[in-house]
Amino acid sequence: MGYRTIKGRLAADPEEVQAGQITIVKFRVIENTGEYRGGKFIEHDTPTTHFVEAKFELGENVMATAHRGDKVVVTGNEYSSSWDDANGQKQYGRVIDADDVAVSLTHATAVITRKPRDE
């Protein structure tokens, strides 16, 4: 689909899922969207839910940092996917394969802790 940047709040705490030997961190971002009409911003009635996946060090850092309700900014490639829900029904949606996830400092502060690089 293309490269996307979204911002919104985490709907729930991120979850780790094992896919072979790779750990994928999955989370949902709720984004309040809208549009300008007649010079005024009008919010849409229902927010947009984005499914996001983060792998490797990014996923580890998301697990250690982000929690339900935190405001985040996500960039990455978006693609279409399908999966079976709890009732065995096929579901379809778009997933963002995250390149970067950042906490929003609009209404919060953060302390940066650098992780040493593996040699």
Structural notes for this entry:
By secondary structure, the chain is mainly beta. The chain has one domain (2-103): Nucleic acid-binding proteins (OB fold (Dihydrolipoamide Acetyltransferase, E2P), Beta Barrel), CATH 2.40.50. The chain contains one helix and eight strands. It has one helix at 56-65, and strands at 2-10, 15-19, 22-31, 34-37, 40-43, 48-55, 71-84, 90-103. The strands form two sheets. It has a five-stranded mixed beta barrel with strand order 1-3-6-8-7. Strands 4-5 form a two-stranded antiparallel sheet. A hairpin with a 2-residue loop joins strand 4 and strand 5. The longest helix has 10 residues, at 56-65. The relative contact order is 0.24. The model has no long low-confidence stretch (mean pLDDT 91).
Condensed summary:
This protein is 8% helix and 57% strand. By secondary structure, the chain is mainly β.
List the helices and strands and how they pair.
Layout: E1 2-10, E2 15-19, E3 22-31, E4 34-37, E5 40-43, E6 48-55, H1 56-65, E7 71-84, E8 90-103
Parallel strand pairs: 6-8
Antiparallel strand pairs: 1-3, 1-7, 2-3, 3-6, 4-5, 7-8
Question: What are the defining features of this structure?
Answer:
globular; 119 residues; single chain; 8% helix; 57% strand; two-stranded antiparallel sheet; 5-stranded mixed beta barrel; OB fold (Dihydrolipoamide Acetyltransferase, E2P); mainly beta
